[in-house]
TrEMBL record:
Protein origin, superkingdom: Bacteria
The protein, known as: Uroporphyrinogen decarboxylase
Source organism phylogeny: Bacteria, Bacillati, Bacillota, Clostridia, Eubacteriales
Domain Uroporphyrinogen decarboxylase (URO-D): 147-394
Biological source species: Acididesulfobacillus acetoxydans
Keyword annotations of the record: Lyase
Length: 401
């Protein structure tokens, strides 16, 4: 079989078609940023770019989760606490209308006051040295927009009046940068639905659970008012030149427990999947938590890719469990737990045994794109990253050739 580019391998895997080997597309961005900052990149890569390292390793370029600091104007990041990003690689841009923002900075803190005709809300996010040392690019919310039911109306106003503009040209630049090394996934949101947005971005978790119990009708009303913004974003991204779209991330069987997922996230993902499938595109969602009890919900959501599946020993499910449940209907992107590449978690012998068993669990290798889930940790043993790459090549062709 002719040698395929990683872009070809990925798209063929999603379609259930043959590939020349098992694709290995590790997420190395955080590993690279942390080690470059610390001056601890492998000696031969001291002056290399991430792209050059990927090419030398002979692996695919992971272009799913964006660099959340990859913006042009510093003002582009100030609405992060609302779950609104304006990044260089995104195929859309959100413009807030009818409000006034008062922005201030206190060291590593960014503080924003949103003044709307319906009242005001405030947020605070932090990006500190510890986060920089870890290679993290997404800032942490210290103060959420919604502290009580009194904040629902101004937050609803912000989203109802938000304008969504197409930004296909900047996405095409990002797609060109990735080239044949991989697939540039178009980002919609880390929240899989309006209710998920409220839970993960707009409220602290403890307040969310109180509100879900104390004000369920008001909370549902808020999701309906955010839904229009969600639909505007998705309509723009669905028409973009991207083949794969990311909607939703960071689920967990305790935080997004199965009944909650079925009621508040599955319907939005399923509608998105129907739209994308009609256009010949694929839906990816980032499933990096404890997935026990959620696999059927993923199937019901009609997703094409379960990104960053992390198996045992970090979660309760094995790779075999997940693949058997998906039965070729969903592609697993991930499958390698991050602890396996850490010397303080597995000895060399344990790593080799684990990798050998993992490849047995991969079965025929169909609908599988190997990656280290959730990401390659900064302290990963580089020789193990290389070892997985060799194992993926040695796995041989997948599917009929």
């Amino acid at each position: 079989m002719a040698v395929m580019t990683f872009r070809e391998k990925i798209l063929a895997t999603l379609k259930g078609e043959a590939t020349d080997c098992l694709p290995y597309v590790p997420r190395l961005d955080l590993w690279y940023k942390a080690n470059k900052l610390r001056g601890t990149l492998p000696s031969k890569y001291k002056k290399a770019t991430l792209t050059e390292i990927v090419d030398d390793l002979g692996v695919g370029y992971h272009a799913i989760i964006p660099d959340f600091l990859d913006f042009v104007d510093p003002l582009d990041e100030v609405d992060r606490a609302l779950g609104i990003y304006r990044l260089r690689t995104l195929p859309y841009r959100t413009v807030l209308r009818g409000i006034r923002r008062n922005i201030s900075y206190e060291g590593d803190l960014t503080c924003v006051e949103y003044q709307t005709p319906a009242g005001k809300v405030t947020t605070k996010v932090v990006y500190d040295e510890a986060m920089r040392q870890a290679g993290v690019t997404i800032t942490h919310i210290l103060e959420h927009a919604i502290k009580s039911v009194d904040d629902y109306e101004p937050v609803a106003y912000i989203f109802e009046h938000a304008e969504v503009q197409a930004a296909y040209e900047q996405y095409l630049v990002a797609k060109e940068e990735v080239g044949d090394r991989g697939v540039a996934v178009a980002y919609v949101s880390l929240a899989g639905s309006p209710m998920h947005l409220i839970q993960r971005e707009l409220m602290s978790y403890n307040i969310f659970f109180y509100e879900l119990h104390d004000h369920p009708k008001e909370l549902e009303w808020l999701t309906q008012r955010i839904q229009g913004y969600y639909q505007r974003v998705f309509d723009v991204v669905a028409k973009s030149p991207a083949e794969v779209i990311l909607l939703g991330a960071n689920y967990d069987a305790q935080i997004t427990w199965p009944p909650f997922f079925r009621e508040h996230i599955t319907p939005t993902l399923a509608r998105a999947a129907d739209t994308l499938h009609a256009a010949g595109k694929f839906l990816l969602t980032h499933t990096d938590g404890e997935n026990k009890g959620l696999l059927q919900s993923y199937l019901d959501s009609k997703i094409d890719i379960a990104d960053s599946i992390c198996p045992a020993p970090m979660t309760q499910l094995s790779l075999r469990d997940v693949r058997e449940a998906f039965a070729g209907k969903v592609t697993v992107w991930g499958g390698i737990p991050s602890v396996s590449v850490l010397e303080n978690s597995m000895s060399d012998r344990e790593f080799e045994e684990y990798l050998a068993d993992l490849l047995v669990q991969a079965g025929q290798g169909d609908h599988l794109i190997l990656s280290i889930a959730d990401t390659t940790p900064p302290d990963a043993t580089f020789s193990r990253i290389e070892r997985i790459a060799r194992a993926a090549r040695e796995f041989g062709p997948v599917g009929r050739v």
